[in-house]
Amino acid sequence: MKILIIGSTGFIGSHCVTYFKSKGVSVWQADVNDSKELNFYKIQRENSNYTVPFKEHKFDVCINASGSAHVGFSFENPSKDFELNVINVQKILVAIRDYNSDCKFINFSSAAVYGNPQSLPISEKSGCKPLSPYGFHKLQSELLLTEYHKFFGLNTCSLRVFSAYGPRLKKQLFWDLYQKTLQGDLVSLFGTGNETRDFIYIDDLLQIIDLVVQNSNFEGAIYNVGSNQEISITEAAQVFINAFSPEKSIEFTGEFKLGDPVNWYADMEILKGMGFTPQFNLTLGLKKYAEWLKDIE
């Protein structure tokens, strides 16, 4: 099997590279960041073009782990977020259609498409009411994948990732906690702490990608990517502090960040039917993340 991973130097993309190489898969990479890796395509940040890899090779699978994954940035620069999360996806789809139409295309969407759900757990059939430009743009990328399957016969599927974490992640809640533990004994966070998320460790996410590659019909399919476990931000933050810096304490400001949902909890029945079983609970996952943070200090 030959796989192209776009966004290969990022958090999820770099883990995909390591994982599939360990499986003996022929892995090619593409990213806007430089790399000395073999089988690597440099993509220009402006006026990006994805045709060359698909002209030169016939890939069995393309995983797109590129784009922006920052809600705040989408409010500050919605045009750029649209380019990264929608326009570039369309460019990849056109390149696949024109040069490698049998390639299976996996694109990372986000649970941000759901907004604040009316009920929990959130299934793939739940209504989508995004709270941010980022969420809207991810929903638009999903529609593009549906469009290119329906009208051009491409093999596509979208993964709605909830709260992924693990080594190499340098943003979002646990990275923020890490940064703040370096600044003082009291760690201050937005919200009340009663908000909930469904956290998934990177190794479990990789298990899901592998299962999707093997089992999805790629007919514009959409899958939740979570652990099927609802955890409060208070609990998650305390587990991290216990693992990384137990002497620190946490406070919540009661202020809310624009675009943040209140409660998330993923229904994972479809992927469980494919054989998905989470291997990491939050305590074990954050222990590994804390070890990585200590190694980079």
TrEMBL record:
InterPro entries: Epimerase_deHydtase (IPR001509), NAD(P)-bd_dom_sf (IPR036291). Residues 3-226 form the NAD-dependent epimerase/dehydratase domain. CDD domains: SDR_e. It holds the Pfam family Epimerase. Transmembrane segments: none annotated. Belongs to the NAD(P)-dependent epimerase/dehydratase family. PANTHER family: DTDP-D-GLUCOSE 4,6-DEHYDRATASE-RELATED (PTHR43000). This is SDR family oxidoreductase. It comes from Flavobacterium restrictum.
